[in-house]
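ESCALATION

Customer reports they have been waiting on this structure for their group meeting. Please prioritize. Original submission:
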Amino acid sequence: MLVTTYKIEKNLAAKKVNICVGDQITLAEAEKFDKEFGSTLSSIDASSFELHIDSTNMKVLTPDLAVKLGGAMGLYKQAGFKKIVIELSQSTVLKMQVSRLVREAGLTNTEVVTK
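Update from on-call: job pushed to the front of the queue and completed.
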């Protein structure tokens, strides 16, 4: 799926929230994402849902976007999803960045995988 910024879909039957992240999201788009994600959360019981994040097209994070993504990780933790899976490309640097943000957010139910 070609996504330039992001796409959020909820699948009630499968009890999954799927997020697809494009190659690089701007700060303005990150703000929009926060609002849309909050709206999605208000319509589900996150503790019975899995969150799947397809970030295979994402590029290495700039410092300002790393801060925004760290904030998103905090939202994911606060929501209390049953399980979180983050899919990345084979970029070692990006995997290190995302894994660090996951640890800093205290997400213990998160799996960072490469495709």
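Sent to customer with the following note: The chain has three helices and five strands.
Escalation resolved.
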